[in-house]
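re: ur msg from earlier - yeah i can do the S-adenosyl-L-homocysteine complex, just paste it... oh wait u already did. ok heres what im feeding in:
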Amino acid sequence: MLDKLRIVLIGTSHPGNIGGTARAMHNMGLADLALVAPRCEVYGSESHARASGADALVSNATVYATLEEAVGDCTFVVGASARVRHLPWPMLTPRALGERLPGECAPEAAQAALVFGREDSGMTNGELQRCHAHVHIPTNPDFSSLNLAAAVQVLTYECRLAALGADDAPETPFGVEWDNPPASHDDMERFFDHLEQTLIDIDFHDPDNPRQLMARLRRLFMRSHIDSMEMNILRGILGAVNKQSRALARQESHDGNG
Ligand code: SAH
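and the outut:
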């Protein structure tokens, strides 16, 4: 299970936090570190010094330009957030996150990611809306933000505890053996693009007055944990809607000309 858990750091600005994260991960038996658009030197002496014996994780860390690329293959993505956001999102405690992981990681194609934000500004709403759930470490409400590497330590510790006790884990997120593999983050993003364009085409969605429509639809579909067959059906429905609305548009222009 821990080998299917990637730690993703977005826009890190202190190399010491990259090293500290590598150390925390290696302590807990994780190895997959992804860095999205880091704002500091990644492979230099400061990150290596803080990594102590976990240098290999820093050297092997993969740098990505965007969050989408870092989690494209993921089937379960959780964002760690120090603050409660305006649009409520499914929320996990660190313990509940650990308890979910064995099931989420059980399908063969499963890949999970735990995403952390910038030291100064955390994660953007857009980034948080790409997650299935958020996790918050219950801290002093007057001083809620942990050091980045410390937050990684707390959450990966819970994941390790869960992995150690996971002998009788459910077979999938739904507690029974599922018939189809989960949809990946890439599949979901292509679907959201297709959905948004279709809703614009049929005049349901006005991108100039979005009113959180796509955020709410994202929340709905992320919450329901779509599998790859369901994804094919949804894309098929959108394709049929596109075909009909093109036919209607042709008909209207034909009628108009005649
Ligand atoms: N000042 C930022 C917090 C930055 S801390 C803000 O207000 O959002 C850097 C990252 O560590 C956060 O983006 C988050 O991923 C993680 N983190 C810090 N404290 C946390 C907490 N209490 N619960 C969950 N994640 C936390």
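cool cool. The chain has two domains: 2-168, 185-257. ping me if u need the other ligands too
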